[in-house]
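thought: fold this chain, then report.
action: predict
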Amino acid sequence: MVDTPTADNPREPDITHVNPAAEDTWFGHPRQLARLFTTEMWERFGYYGMRALLTLYLANYFLFSDRTTNGVYGGFTALVYLTPLVGGLLADRYLGSKRAVKFGAIIMSLGYLILSVGAGMGTEAKPFAMIEGQRYEVTIDKASGDKQQYVTIGADKLAIKGQEDGSVNLVAADGKVAKTLPKGGLESDGERSPFFTMVLLIGLSMVTMGNGFFKPNISTMVGELYPKGDGRRDTGFTIFYMGINLGSLFSQILCPFLATAVGWWAGFGLASIGMLFSWTLIQFDGGRLGGYGEPPANAPNRAIIIFICALASLPVIYFLFTNLMSAPAPVEGSGFVGYLVSLSLMGKLLFGTFLIGIPVILFWSWRVGNKVEFQMMLAAMILIVFNVVFWTLFEQAGSSLTLFADRNTDLSVFGLFSISAGQTQFFNAAFIVIFAPFMSLLWTSLARRGLEPPIPVKFAIALIGVGLGFLFLVWGSSFAGPDFKVGIWWLAGLYLIHSLAELCISPVGLSMITKLSIVRIVGLMMGVWFLSISVAQYVAGVVAQFASVETVGGQVTNLKVSLDTYTHTFTTIAWVAIGLGVLLFLLSFPLKKWMHGVK
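observation:
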């Protein structure tokens, strides 16, 4: 997901009577916006560059199964959206936004550096296979285009050929089948270093914790640049968020390129350098940010204690990752209850908080609010639930869609050159940069004519759009060649449709929450909104697990089975999204009434 513009108070009239021409401005905005813009650009450069590598790094370097890979990715991105709740609270009460941003930036940079060092000093996991209780060495012919896997049994080097029914043929050099193993008869894994696995999780834990301090507070500083009622605020946030898209666009090209051309360590190292640039800009501001993001007046100076406690909390985040990786698979036929029981501790906490929190808040709203307030809160909660669905499906980009790009996509661009699977994630950022201004003009033009869709309809369009994107890719899969690979432009088309869908939902979310919430609990409702995105990120990892395929040494054993698995999962996702989008469109009529004029 690439962040898109939002502001707290859209259409707020300019009552400050400040003449921008009389100020030291940057494109008519406070000069400090340029520094915050660049700071955010480099931070997003580091984050999205690392994120473009993470799934492939887990699957192809550490040789984790698809289930573990997608689970770790989903858990990581879930925590990325959950920790800002704590970081924002600590900044508001004690630290001030500026100190929180500095601390978060240096911790994230160190986290990326640890990932880089681990990739550079460690060695790739060694694949092996368990056959009839015996362990055998697996080798992969990376020189061949299909990266064929071989298992050595005695003096024979046998090619591993997965079959459509789940069985595996071991094929001799003369092409004859030496042995056929039933489904489950070959279990593959990787021999990985426990130490460097620990280094991986420490790096991810540091990035998670640092992000919690950085992400919410850099936006707060942008808001402080504008006095209450300053009509430039919305445009300022739009300019600021363009930095997010520029940073992600370039990093999702460069970091995967270095990972492929030089090594994984180089890709993570570039992310660390980008994050270091971000820290430098905010740390050595030359006094340009003086008076912005300062600690609250009369607040006790507890910065050192907070920073020490934050570092001391790293083992807790580390434990959540290890618990997630060791969570058992749900027992077949155990149903929804069995599925919940099999969730990791992180999953139980997220689901439990969300499923209990929503009805409790609604009950409280019914008890203490009037009829109008309760209806507005009910509308907000319904939209929050549908928001979870959208981001759950949209966020397949970093997990199942990246693995699909790696395994079942022809990455050749017009036959001139090829990009890596990680680089395919740049399509989203590129389309956001290209189409965001046009979408903004479209909504403005429709609003002038009184034709702008209400928020629930925009949410419905977004859900239907994400479903249509998956159907577009499934359609393209029907044109796959004998190598069972889909042309890259079908994947690019999915990202185009998804990006347009994102522009229908992302810009209005936070603003919608602030307008629909009861005043006394706006802060709590903002927390629920971010919790909903965190839940969506975790569930996205769970959904991606349904697209898991059997791999040996990080490579699938049958590309046709892989393609069929992905298309089946994507088809199911598509129709669920479209069905829920139609449902929300039908609900939009009562929701519009319950929103009482909020747009």
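thought: worth noting. The two ends are 24 Å apart (CA to CA).
final: tokens above.
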